[in-house]
Specification:
globular, mainly beta, eight-stranded antiparallel beta sheet, 2 helices, three-stranded antiparallel beta sheet
Amino acid sequence: MKEMDMEKEKNLVFATQDGDVKAIEEMNDPVFAQKALGDGVCIVPSDNNVYSPIKGKLAVVADTKHAYGIIGEDELEVMIHVGIDSVELDGRGITSYVSVEENVEVGTLLCSIDFDVFKKENISTETAVVITNKDRFEIVSKNLGLAKAKENYIFQYKRK
């Protein structure tokens, strides 16, 4: 995992969780793996806290607390989808700390997941972080491998 000088580098999306960052194509969810919702990465978390990967405003907080949409200051739209089939938990095992229209910074705590609940219900904790307005933005590089939330970037993007 490469370190970046945040003052020199722009258009970075940071790790939402501590864990192993993999290419989105490796995610065990075909919708994300086929990039149907956008390009990005998958994080296999080693920590249960999920943080904002960009500075912006929350546009979506799912009622089931498993998905968050953030619009960045440059209009980049990022979705954080916690777990595979986690919507089936109907919010159980996820504690959300934010609401729609709230401004967030890189590192704002979005939610915490209870690994025991996910394991008991046989729900994967893999987390997708994708650009949903792929018609306007594209990823120019991905930073795969072990990441520390709030510190390591997971991908760099540019406007098309």
